[in-house]
């Protein structure tokens, strides 16, 4: 008896009941904490492909984005948390964010991110919440080993132009997509993928202002880890920080360079 699965019509595994569907993915009303920092060039540069250049402010300290979000709704993956470390880089003299580290707590978001775009997602425990007068965030992997602790105190509402001037929400994202060969001996497929994530602050229904705030942000790499060496990005110096509620669209990506 022959199988009935038409392999010409499948998109993801398993072919008859895929873990995720085709993008785009839509996100709504997401609290997001972000900070642009100067970091340690020696620790950051080892995560960047050799055809990209790090962006600095003239003092040889590269810029990177710390991004932590809770997604209460996404059209393809449900709800989940996410943490990202993304240096600002130049590709063909244009600014981009390169994803060095990214963590989630949702299997569909993890698998789709790795398989479709090449987001180097790992499963972890994280939390983003408002406690007292501050926004508190943390990342653990494995549970009990705290990799990141962050705290922001909101000072005032921010303008969209402030956010965009940092490259957040206006710079395309780059991923190094690595697909191992099944025989484990041949070279993997390695590609540079570009995706244009669309991200906008929500508008308050009370006064029509943007739900976007700025203030001071403390970011600490608490414990060192051999499997997740985020601590090498430090010590850090804050450039700017934002907290707000956002809508986002994660569209399909595009391969822009083939290494192997």
Automatic annotation (TrEMBL):
Pfam families: ADC
GO MF annotation list: lyase activity
Origin superkingdom: Archaea
Protein name, as recorded: Acetoacetate decarboxylase
Native source organism of the sequence: Saccharolobus islandicus (strain Y.G.57.14 / Yellowstone #1)
Phylogenetic classification of the source organism: Archaea, Thermoproteota, Thermoprotei, Sulfolobales, Sulfolobaceae
């Amino acid at each position: 008896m022959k199988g009935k699965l038409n392999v010409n019509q499948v998109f993801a595994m398993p072919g008859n009941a895929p873990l995720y569907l085709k993008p785009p993915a839509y996100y709504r009303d997401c609290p997001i904490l972000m900070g642009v920092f100067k970091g340690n060039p020696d620790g950051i540069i080892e995560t960047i492909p050799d055809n990209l250049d790090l962006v600095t402010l003239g003092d040889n300290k590269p810029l990177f984005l710390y991004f932590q979000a809770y997604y209460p709704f996404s059209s393809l993956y449900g709800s989940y948390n996410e943490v990202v470390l993304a240096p600002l880089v130049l590709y063909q003299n244009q600014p981009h964010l390169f994803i060095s580290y990214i963590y989630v707590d949702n299997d569909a978001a993890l698998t789709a991110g790795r398989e479709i775009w090449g987001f180097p997602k790992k499963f972890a425990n994280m939390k983003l919440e408002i406690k007292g007068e501050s926004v508190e965030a943390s990342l653990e992997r494995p549970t009990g080993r705290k990799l990141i602790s962050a705290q922001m105190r909101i000072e005032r509402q921010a303008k969209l132009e402030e956010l965009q001037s940092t490259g957040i929400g206006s710079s395309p994202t780059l991923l190094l997509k690595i697909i191992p060969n099944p025989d484990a001996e041949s070279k993997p497929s390695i590609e540079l993928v570009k995706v244009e994530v669309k991200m906008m602050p929500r508008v308050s229904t009370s006064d029509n202002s943007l739900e976007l705030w700025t203030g001071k942000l403390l970011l600490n790499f608490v414990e060192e880890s051999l499997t997740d060496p985020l601590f090498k990005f430090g010590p850090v110096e804050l450039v700017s920080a934002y907290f707000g509620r956002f809508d986002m669209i994660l569209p399909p990506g595009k391969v822009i360079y083939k290494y192997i």
